[in-house]
Amino acid sequence: GDSNIWRLETELPRDASVKYRYLICSVDPTSGNVHVRRFETHIVPRQVPIDLAEEEANGSKEKVQPKIDTLGDIDGNTKLDKGWLTTETIMQFKFFDNPFSVKERLKNRLLYVKITTMNLRINAESQNVSSLQEESLSNDTRENGTESMTTYSFTEVTSLRNPSACYEQQSQFGCPYHKDDFLIYNVTVAEPENVAYLVDLYTYSSKSKEDEPPYHLGYHYILPNFLKKSEGILELPVTCASKHRPLGMMRIEYLKVTPLLPSRCTLERSYIRYWNKRWTGLDVGHRGSGTSFKASDGNVIRENTIASLKKAVAHGADMVEFDVQLSKDLVPVIYHDFDIYVSLKRKTTLETNDMLELPMRELTVEQLRTLKVYHVVEGRNREAKFFDEDLEEHQPFPQLAEALDQIDPHCGFNIEIKWSQKLKNGRMESDLNFDSNLYVDCILRVVLEKAGQRRIVFSCFDADICTMLRLKQNLYPVMFLTLGVTSRYPSYHDPRCNSIEMAVRNAYATELLGIVAHTEDLLRDQTQVNLATERGLIIFCWGDDNNCKDTIKHLKSLGIHAIIYDKMDIFSDKAVKESVFLVGARDSQAALLQQINIENRYEQTNQHDFLNDKDVRISLNKSGSSADPVLSTSTPSI
After folding, report:
1. What is the rounded CA–CA span in Å between residue 230 and residue 253?
2. Do 12 and 52 meet the contact criterion of CB atoms below 8 Å apart?
3. What is the pLDDT of residue 259?
4. Domain 282-330+395-586 CATH (choose: 3.40.50.720, 3.20.20.190, 3.40.50.150, 1.20.140.10)
5. Are strands 80-82 and 34-40 parallel, antiparallel or unpaired?
6. Strands, E assignment, 73-166
7. CA angle in degrees (0–180, nearest 5) for 240-245-248
8. Which segments within 111-164 are labelled E, that is strand?
9. Domain 94-123+149-257 falls in which CATH fold?
10. CATH 3.20.20.190 residue ranges for the chain
11. Which one, of 477, 491, 481, lies nearest residue 447 by Cα?
């Protein structure tokens, strides 16, 4: 009815507590599959206690008033987050870098973009060939669509031009695209192979009155066969809505996010936006114990190896940061660069023709471990730096699964997903031939299977990979790595990575945990820290500037939640070389033992009171009736 209160009666076990969460879900009418739209993410879920019928047990006849819960709110703490994909797919369409090229007379007009889903599934019983032809020849691109053309879908849009950007349902005439804007449409569909997307453009006439709606300028249909890859760029003609002639062109970049199957996620727990207030100024070991191919002092361990990770842990790292990418046989391995050098033949000295540069992705994990492989720096300088391959823990290319198994579980992992991006000059960092959905799924499966209770944070410089990581699972948080304003590295094609301001807006809209900012940009303008924290986002920082005790101390004073730096053994000022998560686990264990002790004492007291009360009743019975049997013990029969 009109009430905003939902009720449910169900049977629950009386002798067990029942934990539960509320969620908003939609049900696909065709398949019956349940899709989670939003769900409660409090660390401690709601609970129906064991003593639900306590009043009844105590003989109370007063009717217990039902408790009314508020969705997302537990004791004033609101946690209601975007769901994850179960069987549905999200098609994301992005409009940025001034994507419309229209006739001169329309160039200064504000264009409104609307995306509508169209069902391509042909129902033989209700449609024949002639009716389909009539439909396709219709002069109207949207308004005359029949009921049979509607499809199960949700369309949400956000503009990163807005500092408080968040996804909302699109309005009747879509969302305006302003100059240098960044529009993102998320369209959730159940059967992507049977859905087309109608892109409508609206604008206001120069002669329109104040209360007059915009008129339909042009349109284009995006068919599913255009969207077979996980990402791509579409250059599409715009057809005039009234004369059906070419009006101009538009460029749309798309991303397809498919569910991780089989799904391993439940409502039991979720850390996607959880960060304890005590976790501030954390020390994070960069590639374990630091970058080993830039150092000149020689006192280093090979980066991104089990030995390097263990050394950082031994010197008190709260977390270790490392890079993960896939081998040719789809095994997640820990390595930073996209390329490697392979020795063509064994010699004691290295000559120019001794090495071949290859993309790392072209070798299987077995080949990476058995061939004589050199780091890019070693290969380009023709000078080997490490001769410790005979030591197992110093081997390059450890598998992600090995790190999860072998590193102290109280040390958190900041897992950076390596993915080649397009630079602003149009070049790719590396020509990856992996499908991005497959790539992310292979890494997620290992983490979800092996992580256990370890604190995990994912990060990536690619905003689309961050979106995938966030939408494919509901357990681990994701942070957006940002380049920011820098003189040290080339800018990316995607503007979301090129400034802290844009990174914050994207992270906030996508409901990520936060951003990993470049310290060079943070030190240029320290007020940028507030851009993240005022939005409730967590902020880490990375960069060569962090390799200085004074800088680390200063960054901690700014309220940075974690600092990623080299050489934990030199730059860490920790008196006790322990992870904050180990200390937290010990405190939790002590609190748990204390609680158990209190409960035990409480039970013993109640037992003592009960026995005394029984003794009194037995004594009264004895004095009241000589026929009562004499009990040899005061212990009650059970």
Report:
1. 11
2. yes
3. 98
4. 3.20.20.190
5. antiparallel
6. 73-74, 77-78, 80-82, 89-96, 100-102, 111-119, 153-159
7. 65
8. 111-119, 153-159
9. Immunoglobulin-like (2.60.40)
10. 282-330+395-586
11. 477
SS3 90: strand
Residue type, 47: Q
Task: Tell me the H-state helices in 320-390.
Answer: 365-370, 376-381
pLDDT for residue 551: 97
For the CA atoms of 344, 350, 353, 356, the dihedral, rounded to the nearest 10 degrees, stands at 50
pLDDT digit string, tens, across residues 494-548: 999 999 999 999 999 999 999 999 999 999 999 999 999 999 999 999 999 999 9
Check: CB of residue 288 under 8 Å from CB of residue 304: yes
Whole-Å CA distances, 23 to 20, 75, 85, 386, 510: 10, 17, 14, 53, 19
CA angle 476, 482, 487 (to 5 degrees): 160
- Tokens encoding 43: 């660390």
Q: Which of 104, 137, 132, 108 is CA-nearest to residue 120?
A: 132
Place of tokens 């095994």: 331
pLDDT by residue (tens digit) across 161-203? 999 889 999 999 999 999 999 999 999 999 999 999 999 999 9
Distance CA 502, CA 182 (A): 10
User: Which stretch of DSSP H or E encloses residue 448?
Assistant: helix 436-450
Beta-carbon contacts of 204 under 8 Å, excluding residues fewer than 6 positions away, are 109, 110, 212, 214, 215
Domain with CATH 2.60.40 in the chain: 94-123+149-257
Is the C-alpha dihedral spanning 49, 52, 58, 64 positive or negative?
A: positive
d(CA 301, CA 293): 10
CA distance 16 to 51: 9
**Coil, strand or helix: which one is 310?**
helix
Q: Identify the bridge partners of residue 215 per DSSP, sorted by sequence position.
A: 203
More confidently predicted of 370 and 178: 178
∠ CA 83-90-493, nearest 5°, is 110
- Rounded mean pLDDT of the chain? 85
